[in-house]
Amino acid sequence: MPLPSLPNEILAAIAELVEDLADIRCLRLVSRAWAGAAHPQLFRRLTYRHYNSVNKAARVVVARPAFAFAVKEIDVELAGEDEDWHAEVKKLFSLCANVFKISISPGDTPLLALATLESAISSKLRELYFWGTLRTPEELVAFASYFNTCPNLSRLGLEGVQIEGLDDLGDDQTGIALLKQSSTRHSLNALSLGAHDPSCIFKLLTSRSHTSLRDLHLELRDEHSEESDPLDLSPFTSLRELHLWRYVDEEFDYGDPDVGAITFLQRCNAPPSLRHLSLELNPDKKFGLDGNDYRIWRYLESGSLLQAIPRSVSTLSVDGVMSETDDVVNYLKSLARSPTLTSLKLNIYKRPASTYSHVAVARECRLLGIRSRLSPFDLVLSGVDVDEDQENGSDCSELEGPWEELVWDGGY
Hints:
Domain F-box: 4-47
CATH topology: Leucine-rich repeat, LRR (right-handed beta-alpha superhelix)
Organism: Leucosporidium creatinivorum
Pfam family, one: F-box-like
Protein name: F-box domain-containing protein
Largest sheet: 15 strands, mixed
CATH architecture: Alpha-Beta Horseshoe
């Protein structure tokens, strides 16, 4: 039977399996039958912002509800208190009964955004990302209430809970009691938490996820010190991926970029199941290579980062800082007796006094059978006092590079 002769329901089911929107557009050109089956799939991912060019597809769905069944993902920005805007988003939420992923950026009005979110049909929702900080008990109650209505939720993202005196207030006053209740209904597979999430929130959200949580994203904060309450990851026996990142404030950040990551990794009790570790320690900053950046230390890790990596990790990616070639080779040599690492992505730099070159690092990776992608840099002296430069990282040093990447994919 020719494909166009198949029932429309089967054609629609086939079109639903095509992921790339460009392929969907091509499929529409095959025949009228395929056009009817494929056209609704153009609306499976909707992005809603305050500027019209992005909202066209979403407004088509609002105007023609027949397409709403195909919507699977909605990414919406709800900043501001425009009532018409929130009413339009509410209508969109109420029409789309098959949505499994919602991402919301509430701006400065999280309570209003949560009120709008209540219109979303939550029975099929599997992924929820709320990129706003909850700063009042009312906001936490509203979030916990919606969280409680999502029985199939498996992936959650929450930027933060920053309520003054949270530990001193009663559970009923802050919504903690409701959050405890709703958390018992969920076994999360993935969790993403921002810098303002205290450890008590992490423990509540994961109370039923010790054997199901596989993917964890955490934003590091400066408070990760000896006095802060560390996160204990040892109960999560299925955890395979850990992503740590930190936001760098260009004007006010004066700490070493890797200190928070080292402290966290040393104290988190990573489970033996952990296989993939990703560190983004300067995610919004480019390396300053104009020869005038006196804060070279901002890019150089302290030499202890690699030693803090859990030995069970097989895939390691470090971005935003550079490791000295000598430190990397010594780290790789320490793995020789139990080579668990199979893939490495790293920025490396060589000092004038370094023993090992960039190529030596690549050679060591190859000897151990580690697939590698190395971005090489050089730290050079500008001609002023060497001892002073090496001691405090002043403007005596300059970074040069990156040079051509050193890549080995495991072949010959």
